[in-house]
């Protein structure tokens, strides 16, 4: 399943104000129900210079793209990695899957 990317500042601001948060050791995810699957990445300069930040973004996009089918519904999601953590592909993929399970559980709890 392919996703769309959040690019506009207004879309990010809406999620920061109205979105719910899910935490893992390396990532924080902001999410809100949406009509389409959308994802954005919020990354600060604490993660290093531009080359390091771009690598982290590529790894997050790849892990998200490979695991987005685990989400039970369409969501707008902002992925925020924590600074100073091991941000390898396998670590990010593991944390994304754990966060997706929590989002699905929260969705089931709200519909019951």
Explained architecture:
By secondary structure, the chain is α/β, with parallel strands linked by helices. The chain has a single domain (4-111), classed as 2-Layer Sandwich (Ribosomal Protein S5, domain 2), CATH 3.30.230.10. It is built from three helices and five strands; from the N terminus they run βαβββαβα. Strands 1-4-5-3-2 form a five-stranded mixed β-sheet, sandwiched between helices. Helix 2 links the parallel strand 4 and strand 5 (75-81). The mean pLDDT is 92.
What attributes characterize this protein structure?
five-stranded mixed beta sheet, Ribosomal Protein S5, domain 2, 112 residues, 3 helices, globular, single chain, alpha/beta
Which SSEs are present, and which pair or pack?
Elements: E1 4-5, H1 9-18, E2 20-23, E3 27-33, E4 38-41, H2 50-67, E5 75-81, H3 89-111
Parallel strand pairs: 1-4, 4-5
Antiparallel strand pairs: 2-3, 3-5
Q: Span between N and C termini? A: 27 Å
How big a fraction of the residues is strand?
Answer: 15-25%
What is the helical fraction, as a range of percent? 40-55%
Shape from CA axes? Answer: globular
Number of strands: 5
| SS class | alpha/beta
Order of helices and strands: EHEEEHEH
CATH architecture type: 2-Layer Sandwich
Please provide a brief summary of the model.
It contains three helices and five strands, in the order E-H-E-E-E-H-E-H. It has 112 residues and is of the alpha/beta class.
């Amino acid at each position: 399943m392919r996703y769309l990317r959040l690019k506009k500042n207004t879309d990010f601001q809406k999620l920061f104000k109205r979105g719910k948060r899910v935490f893992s050791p390396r990532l924080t995810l902001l999410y809100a129900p949406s009509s389409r699957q959308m994802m954005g990445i919020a990354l600060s300069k604490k993660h290093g210079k531009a080359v390091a930040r771009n690598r982290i973004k590529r790894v997050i996009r790849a892990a998200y793209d490979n695991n987005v089918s685990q989400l039970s519904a369409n969501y707008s999601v902002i992925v925020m990695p924590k600074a100073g953590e091991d941000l390898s592909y396998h670590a990010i993929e593991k944390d994304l899957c754990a966060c997706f399970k929590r989002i699905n559980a929260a969705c089931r709890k709200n519909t019951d």
